[in-house]
Input
Amino acid sequence: MNGNIPDTFWTIQEELSLFGGACLLGIPAGILFDLNRLFRRIFPHHHRLTVAIEDTLWMLSVATLLLCYASGFAKG
Output
């Protein structure tokens, strides 16, 4: 090996830091999920379409959160 390590390799500390950050992303995702459930209990829905729209909005918000994390911290 020539001693030049490509930028794609991370140390164990960096990997653990990224893993911890990803685990901490579960907190806002869980809060968003609980707010979605609370909204459903306050305003009950009887149509499958409105439930599907709410689920899709929750999924897109969590996906956006993950995308921002990956592009900002995980070199991604």
About this structure: Helices lie at 12-24, 26-42, 48-73.
